[in-house]
Design brief:
Length: 201
């Protein structure tokens, strides 16, 4: 798969330095709305979790989301083992320090080059990690990492200032020829959308 062009990847690499301008773990995750909004706008993705398993966060930044998803899922009665990878080595160092018991589950990798030797029960990513013109290629790649019966959970984050609506993740999944198993939204007004599809083959 060709993947994004060099300019798109260069911008993705620059995010590490932007995130690490702050010592706040939430800001280091690419979010600037504080703890209450973080929970309100990110925790709805756990509605896509329906059983115990391994959770892979693609573009995991400092590991905070993977850590919190593990906690939020536990409140719903499910046990998750967190995994993640990111293109930023300093962010992965933070993720490993945040979750030392699972440090070996976090690694530096380029999502468009990496070829894992395993699959996961849940794979999570945001559509914005891929240019729009190759969304279906991106989704196909992510689905190849989901074990049979597992779920690909996709998200999209909007913003409040300036007002920016999240992408219609459900519509994109359908456009790419897959069935939508469920959806959830986060924030008031809605600034995060999530949808999931099950790997049935």
């Amino acid at each position: 798969m060709a993947g994004p062009d060099d300019e798109f990847k260069a911008k993705a690499r620059q995010l590490e330095s932007e995130y690490l301008k702050s010592d706040d773990p939430i800001v280091q995750s690419g979010f600037s709305g504080g703890t209450d909004r973080w929970i309100a706008e990110r925790s709805p993705l756990v509605q896509g979790i329906d059983r115990d398993g391994d959770f892979l966060d693609v573009g995991c930044a400092n590991g905070l989301l993977a850590q919190d998803v593990m906690k939020w899922a536990a409140h719903a009665g499910f046990e998750l083992i967190p995994h993640g990878f990111d293109i930023g080595p300093r962010l992965i160092d933070l993720a490993r320090g945040r979750l030392p018991v699972f440090a070996d589950n976090f690694q530096v990798a380029d999502a468009w080059v990496w070829e894992p030797d395993r699959q996961w029960t849940y794979v999570y990513s945001v559509l914005e990690l891929s240019p729009e013109e190759i969304w279906c290629e991106w989704i196909e790649r992510l689905m190849s990492w989901v074990g049979t019966g597992g779920r690909l959970i996709l998200g999209s984050y909007g913003g409040r200032t300036p007002r920016r609506d999240p992408l219609d993740v459900e519509e994109v999944i359908r456009r790419c020829g897959l069935s939508v198993g469920g959806t959830s939204v986060g924030g008031e007004p809605v600034v995060a959308r999530f949808a999931w599809t099950t790997h049935t083959i």
